[in-house]
Specification:
The complex is a heterodimer of chains A (about 475) and B (about 180).
Chain A: H1 8-24, H2 29-57, E1 61-63, E2 79-81, H3 87-100, H4 112-126, H5 132-140, H6 143-151, H7 157-178, H8 188-202, H9 209-217, H10 220-227, H11 231-240, H12 246-268, H13 273-294, H14 297-328, H15 344-357, H16 365-379, H17 385-406, H18 421-439, H19 442-460
Antiparallel strand pairs in A: 1-2
Helix pairs in contact in A: 1-2, 1-4, 2-3, 3-4, 3-14, 3-18, 4-5, 5-7, 7-8, 7-9, 8-11, 9-10, 9-13, 10-14, 12-13, 12-17, 13-14, 13-16, 13-17, 14-15, 14-16, 14-18, 14-19, 15-17, 15-18
Chain B: H1 3-7, H2 9-31, H3 36-57, H4 60-95, H5 105-109, H6 112-123, H7 128-159
Helix pairs in contact in B: 2-3, 2-6, 3-4
The chains are: A mainly alpha (about 475), B mainly alpha (about 180).
């Protein structure tokens, strides 16, 4: 397997881990926040380095050149391939902008140490392929939000029940899978266990209540960090796609489509901004799953493009709401707040990220949504139109929230509402990526299409997953 | 004719019907407007409806001529509209009275009740906003409010307490003058 020129993967996993230890010895909250920003920025730089190095290699997969933990792990535990190369910088970016947008006064409530530990676990998760290490990382990554809920003395029952079921199904399914031949029909039952686990983690109806509960009871930052990287979709891509037959995947796509429409409708009846955001995220993440579950090259390309755009745009949308909440507490959507005059930059960013999440032209989400709709209609001509309905409902929810929060009678407040330099920087970075990705989509789309074709080729090599409707033509 | 329209009689009928409905609705709506430019906008809608009927019937060259002629005429009307109103004002000032409008043939034939209904139809834009609100928006929101209520009951049951802290969110926290 080709080697990267520097151990980007391991270093990017270890830096936030050691950073969390470092923060343990800093008692001052303001210094902790500054140091945390530096650590997250360094991690992001490392993941960008990994992406550039990987792209320059021109290979489908690669591992680190030197392995610090070679004595502990097998050489091929942490591998970057075309499917995960963009996800690693995306995860690091999500953590960086969320920490950047944390107000100094809120730093004590938002556990920076747990955030860095979560970042380390998530980067390790996205660097793993199907293996017991991936299963272990998926299980362990459910712990930090639980610890935070306990710290905040909130009821953890809903979270425990759902994550307990997730862990049980995941471990049982993988253990069973290890004992059967993946090219035979014996894989169907353990595959069903793993599928249920992954869909639970992704928040597919009716297993989504843990997500709304986490947004209700946890800190907004932790909830955003735990959900926006779309770990459930990654688990589906690594654990389910290689083994599930096309008929099974396309049947699950119906459930994901239903979830997308259901969550879009639910977002419209919420009276509070966090819950609206949670349902918006559920709807968009379900659309990503739809694309993966269609298992056609166009559908999967759309899903992979949409994954990046949803990660960026909904993170930006979420941190804007979080910035407002940090100043004035939870935002009711029952009346108009008139905050535009006091927060013009954040209001513009809110609109940009909200529209980007639904695939507005000239934003990074446009091409992905277009490909997803085409893929869905190709497989299910009538049901595929539900993708359009879900996107329309999400668009209405975004605009509804925008008008409720930023328009209306202007109320003068003594609280400083303008964006701080760190928030402006986070806004600028995300805006550039959202608009840049929308105006110059070709390089990203071409690489996602190549990755989707490779996924399809891998599925064609397994007799359980071969799809006669979409043969892969091998280049001579 | 367009190959798509040629191959489907159903589609042709749908296109013609939509064009006719648009033309009739546009004609009614333009007559009840109090603003000249909005009235001209609805008049444009009427012409577009007629053009769509022409396309549906397969008269594509007629439709093309109609589009060009309509574009030229409507542009001139829109540009002339402000000065036309000023000319009317000056004329009425000179006459010392309002210029009487001659009633159209339809107004003389149709009963007063139909006039009133047509006025309300045009003024409320074909009752589309009201119909949309009554038959689509409210049932939709009511249905999802029921789902929301069911989810609340389930989460309250599992948590054995009121599970939604967001219910206590103040309506206007920005007026409290206190930092969160």
């Amino acid at each position: 397997m080709p080697e990267l020129r520097f151990p980007w993967i391991e270093v990017s996993i270890l830096v936030p881990m050691f950073g969390a230890l470092w923060l343990h010895f800093i008692s001052n909250a303001e210094r902790s926040l500054r140091h945390c920003v530096v650590i997250c920025a360094a991690t992001f730089a490392l993941t960008v380095g990994e992406l550039i190095d990987f792209v320059s290699l021109g290979a489908f997969e690669a591992h680190d050149h030197w392995l610090f933990l070679d004595w502990l792990f097998n050489r091929d535990i942490f591998v970057v391939d075309e499917l995960s190369s963009y996800q690693l910088p995306l995860v690091a970016l999500i953590f960086l902008v969320t920490v950047l947008a944390t107000l100094r006064t809120k730093a004590p409530r938002f556990s920076l140490k747990l955030a860095l530990v979560s970042e380390s676990l998530m980067l390790a998760t996205f660097s793993c392929r199907e293996s017991w290490t991936l299963i272990l990382l998926l299980v362990v990554s459910t712990i930090p939000p639980y610890l935070e809920l306990r710290q905040r003395e909130r009821c953890t029952r809903i979270y425990r029940i759902h994550m307990g079921a997730f862990v049980a199904l995941l471990v049982t399914g993988w253990a069973w899978m290890s004992m059967v031949d993946v090219h035979s029909s014996a894989v169907l039952v353990p595959g069903a266990f793993l599928t249920t686990a992954c869909l639970l983690r992704a928040g597919i109806f009716p297993l989504h209540l843990w997500m709304t509960d986490l947004f209700e009871k946890g800190t907004f930052g932790t909830a955003i960090l735990f959900t926006t990287p779309l770990v459930g979709a990654y688990a589906v891509m690594r654990l389910i796609l290689p083994i599930a037959p096309s008929w099974a995947m396309q049947s699950i796509a119906i459930l994901s489509l239903f979830t997308a429409v259901y969550a879009g409708g639910m977002a419209l009846v919420q009276r509070e901004a966090r819950r609206m955001f949670c349902y918006l995220l559920l709807s968009q993440s379900s659309l990503v799953l739809v694309g993966l579950e269609l298992v056609t090259p166009i559908g999967m390309t759309g899903a992979l493009c949409l994954w990046v755009s949803v990660g960026m745009s909904l993170t930006g949308f979420g941190i804007t709401l979080r910035c407002i909440e940090a100043r004035i507490s939870r935002i009711s959507l029952a009346d108009f707040h008139g905050l535009y005059q006091q927060m013009p930059i954040l209001s513009g960013f809110f609109l940009l990220t909200g529209l980007a999440s639904i695939g507005f032209p000239a934003t990074v989400g446009f091409v992905g949504m277009e490909l997803l709709i085409e893929g869905a209609v190709d497989v299910y001509p009538l049901v595929g139109s539900m993708v359009v309905i879900a996107a329309a409902l999400n668009g209405i929810a975004v605009l509804f929230a925008y008008f409720r929060i930023f328009t209306g009678r202007h109320n003068r407040t003594l609280i400083p509402m303008h964006a701080r330099p760190a928030e402006k920087f986070a806004v600028l970075v995300l805006s550039l990526l959202i608009l840049g990705g929308g105006l110059y989509p070709q390089p990203g789309v071409a690489s996602r299409y190549h990755a989707a074709k490779e996924l399809t080729r891998q599925r064609q090599s397994n007799p359980m997953t071969v799809d006669p409707k979409h043969p892969v033509h091998h280049e001579k | 004719m367009s190959p798509l329209l040629e191959s489907s009689l159903t589609l042709q009928c749908m296109v013609i019907t939509l064009g006719l409905v648009s033309a009739i609705c546009g004609a009614l709506m333009s007559r009840v407007q109090s603003d000249i430019k909005v009235s001209l906008a609805y008049a444009s809608l009427t012409q577009v409806g007629i053009i769509v009927v022409e396309i549906g019937l397969g008269f594509r060259y007629l439709a093309l001529i109609h589009i060009i002629g309509h574009a030229s005429l409507r542009t001139m009307q829109l540009l002339r509209a402000p000065t036309l109103l000023r000319d009317y004002n000056e004329l009425e000032n000179a006459l010392g009275a309002r210029i009487t409008q001659r009633q159209s043939g339809w107004t003389r034939i149709l009963p007063a009740a139909v006039h009133r209904w047509a006025y309300r139809f045009g003024f409320d834009r074909g009752f589309m906003d009201i119909a949309l609100d009554k038959f689509i928006v409210r049932p939709f929101l009511a249905l999802f409010s029921v789902f929301d209520s069911l989810e609340r009951q389930v989460t309250d049951l599992i948590s054995n307490e009121a599970s939604r802290e967001s219910d206590d969110a103040p309506l206007h926290p920005e007026e409290s003058q206190r930092v969160a």
